[in-house]
Every structure is written in C-alpha cells, then in structure tokens.
Amino acid sequence: MKRLSVIALVGLAVGTAVTVTGQETSDGTPKPGAGEGVVRLLEELSQRARDLEEKEWEVAERERAVAELEQLLDARVAELESLREQLEARITAWTEKDGPRVDQLAKVYAAMDPGRAGELLDELELDLAVLVLGRIKQKQAAAILTRMPKDKTLIISERLLRPLEPGPDERENGRRP
After folding, report:
1. pLDDT higher than threshold 90 for residue 113
2. Closest to 137 in 3D by CA, of 158, 117, 164, 162
3. Does 68 or 40 have the greater pLDDT score?
4. 22 Rama sector, left if φ>0, alpha if ψ -120 to 50, beta otherwise
5. Could you say which DSSP state residue 27 is in?
6. Residue 50 to residue 1: CA distance in whole angstroms
7. Above 60 in pLDDT, residue 5?
8. Can you state the percent helix, strand and coil of the chain, rounding each to 5?
9. What is the distance of C-alpha 175 from the center of its chain?
10. For residue 24, what are the β-bridge partners?
11. By C-alpha distance, which of 149, 94, 95 is closest to 120?
C-alpha cells in the first residue's frame, strides 16, 4: 500500500513537471503526445507495484505455512522425545526387575551343551535370546551361535552390537519380530 502512495506521488510530480516544462499549448492544455510517455511509465510502475504486492502476499503466505509446519514439527519432536524417555524408563525398570532372572537363565544356557542351547535359543523370543547370549561368556556364546541358523545368528549378532537399533527384519517390516 505504501508503494502505491509513493508511485502516485511520483506520478503527480512527473505530471507537474511535464506541465511546468512548457509541454502545453498557448491555452494551457498539454500538447498532443507530450505526456503519453509519462502516462505509459506510470502505468508500468503501477503494474509493477501490484505485482510486488502480490509477491509479498505470496511470501507472507509461505512464511505462515512454514511457521505452521515448524510448530507441527516441534510438537512431533517433543512427542518423540517423550516416547524415548518413556522407553528408557521401561527398559531401566525391566532390567532392574527381570535382570536377575535373565542372569539365572544365562547361567542355565551356558551350562548346556552348545548344540542343545543353540536349538533352544533359536526357538526363544528374539529379544530374550539376545539378552541371554549377552550375559554368557564370549567363548560359550560363540559356540552356541555357531550351532544356530545363520539368519538368526546374524540378527542376534547385530542386536548384541547395537541393542536399541532395529535389525534388518525390523527395518523392512517396521517392527520387531
């Protein structure tokens, strides 16, 4: 809006300048064609001002949309952070509560024949198998893993290395088995 006012003032000044410079006939009316260039220039300036206002409006709309998306993203990040904290609290609570029982189970599997332990761990729920093998001495765990199916051994190995990251089966399905 301010630009249109400035352009109108410029147009008024240019029109006055044309009148003052002697571009009129003896009776005071402008000579034919004397102000046509100025009028055309003013029309172009006016059109540019309208175009600029439209672009400013578009930019303002985009800024509002970006601000709205930023708010949604911030809310989602806060939600995910809350879920992470809840998950960590659950893991801690579960470890404190069930840790001694898992330790006891690990001792039982470590005392078994590696072939039999491998067969049983293959049938065990994957997360529990990872916990049990993680508590067995490396040499015993290696003997057990060599007697398990290759695909299961790979998944358990990845989980032992990175316990909170999803394995390849989870990345494909988006869930834990």
Report:
1. yes
2. 117
3. 68
4. left
5. T
6. 9
7. no
8. 80, 0, 20
9. 20
10. 30
11. 149
